[in-house]
Amino acid sequence: MLKKCVAVLLLGCSLALPVGARTGTRAEQTVMKGLHPVAGNFFIKNFRFQSGEILPELKLHYQTLGAPRRGPDGHVVNAVLVLHGTGGSGNQFLVPRYAGELFGPGQPLDASKYFIVLPDDIGHGQSSKPSDGLRTRFPHYDYADMVRAEHALIVDGLKLDHLRLVTGTSMGCMHAFMWGEDYPHFVDALMPLACLPVAIGGRNRMWRQMLMNAIRDDPGWKGGAYVTEPRQGLRTAVDMLLIAGSAPIALQRDYPSGHDMQAYLAHTVPHMVDLLDANDLLYQVASSRDYDPHARLGAIRATVMWVNSQDDFINPPYLGIAQREVRKMPHATYVLIPASNATHGHGTHTWAAVWKSYLVKLLGSSGADR
Question: What is the pLDDT of residue 29?
Answer without folding.
Answer: 56
